[in-house]
Write a structure and sequence with these properties.
By secondary structure, the protein is α/β, with parallel strands linked by helices. The protein has 13 helices and 14 strands. The chain folds into two domains: 221 residues, Rossmann fold (3-Layer(aba) Sandwich), CATH 3.40.50; 166 residues, Response regulator (Rossmann fold).
């Protein structure tokens, strides 16, 4: 066990109680004694720098939390977690995966960037080593055998939110779509338009596409935001994450402080560390939330009321001092999925046996709610509408209701 994992395990001993953690180390899901198997290696691919760094950190945290609360074992086997830097493009992702495969990993997990996921597809399929992706899942990734995902297909949040707004937006609404051009935005926007209806008269023109290149500065989106606002929208649908989300909201508020219509988006817009950065933008001098709701759709919210989430969210907060994101949750579930598959693959599992076992694990009791893999190897799961509001003194994504089941 590494020094970092040992420290986290000790934190969890104090947070969860010695009995709970020892039980996690010494029993399987049904309470039967675990027979120690041979050591195994799991390769985790995530970015160490750049726009995806914070998502990568959440993915690492989620997987390591599962290991720390399960005795550093998966399926009864002691685990060495080998990490590789995904970088920010397909070539760097390919290099990371090739390096991990050379080290004899039993399975792979992680992957933040959709371009990286597409770029490593053939490498993974040829190597016949299962990849349980915990974030990137482009629509174009189809007909795979060894690639599974515990997140969702990129068009699904847009489909869920589009269908919901189709039913809920008033007849005289004017909805504008604004998003970065290219990449995952095309999947997200296509899903939204599919759910809402491309020919719906409430759609105020074609999407406004903003620059998707590099790290946005204080004026990257200003001209395109003015173009969108000139259409006099009563509601906005957008798709931004991380630094881009922070800059988009800042520049929208600065361009037109009087805009008080709702902002709708996939959960990326307010996920993870974004809300902390936006506090000064969304809250006035009297600590009141500024007008204009921000509502997002996600497959997870840290306030979901189920037993699995109470255990996960409590342990995550006590270990990392922040609430878990959907990225951390999906990585935690990737570890859970591997735990079950490796246990069912036999005493000396190989990658192909683990891959076969992945197709037979059935339902997962997840912090997001119960889900299971569908035929394309992605989750069939619930989607939740959330709103940004205060939870105590902190801005949080607060669940409003369940709006769809997709997958």
């Amino acid at each position: 066990m590494s020094q970092m994992n040992r420290r986290r395990a000790l934190q969890l001993l104090a947070a969860l109680g010695t009995t709970g953690l020892v039980a996690g180390c010494g029993t399987d899901d049904e309470g039967e004694p675990v027979t120690a198997g041979s050591p195994i290696k799991i390769g985790l691919v995530a970015p160490n720098s750049g726009p995806g760094k914070t998502i990568g950190e959440d993915i690492v945290n989620g997987f390591e939390l599962y290991l720390a609360t399960h005795g550093q074992r998966l399926g009864g086997h002691p685990v060495t977690l080998v990490k590789a830097d995904e970088g920010d493009n397909a070539k760097s992702g390919q290099d990371a995966v090739n390096d991990l495969l050379k080290q004899g990993v039993l399975a792979l997990t992680g992957v933040v960037n959709p371009a990286v996921m597409s770029g490593i597809r053939d490498i993974v399929e040829k190597a016949r080593v299962p990849l349980i992706g915990s974030n990137a899942s482009p629509v174009s990734l189809q007909s795979v055998v060894y690639i599974w995902r515990t997140s969702y297909v990129l068009d699904e949040p847009g489909r869920a939110l589009g269908a919901y707004l189709k039913r809920r937006l008033p007849a005289r609404s004017r909805l504008v779509i604004i998003a970065p051009e290219g990449g995952d935005s095309l999947d997200v926007v296509q899903g939204f338009r599919q759910g809402f209806g491309v020919g719906d008269p409430r759609m105020a023109g074609e999407p406004v596409w903003t620059d998707a290149g590099g790290k946005p500065d204080e004026n990257s989106y200003a001209a395109d935001i003015r173009k969108a606002l000139n259409r006099k929208p009563t509601a906005i649908f957008c798709h931004y994450s991380g630094t881009a989300a922070i800059q988009f909201i800042r520049q929208l508020r600065r361009t037109d402080p009087a805009y008080t219509g709702p902002i709708y988006a996939p959960g990326f817009l307010t996920e993870g560390a974004v809300l902390n950065e936006l506090h000064g933008v969304l809250v006035d001098d009297d600590d009141a939330l500024l007008p204009g709701p921000i509502q997002t759709v996600s497959n997870y919210s840290a306030d979901l009321n189920n037993n699995a989430n109470q255990v996960f969210a409590s342990a995550y907060r006590k270990t990392y001092n922040v609430s878990p994101s959907t990225y951390a949750m999906a990585s935690y579930d990737a570890a859970q999925v591997l735990d079950k598959a490796i246990r069912n693959a036999g005493a000396e599992p190989n990658p192909r046996q683990v891959n076969l076992a992945l197709g037979k694990i059935g339902q997962i009791d997840s912090p997001r709610g119960v889900w299971q893999f569908n035929q394309p190897r992605t989750p069939q799961q619930r989607w939740y509408l959330r709103t940004v509001q205060f939870d105590g003194r902190l801005l949080s994504n607060v669940t409003l209701n369940e709006i769809a089941t997709l997958g």
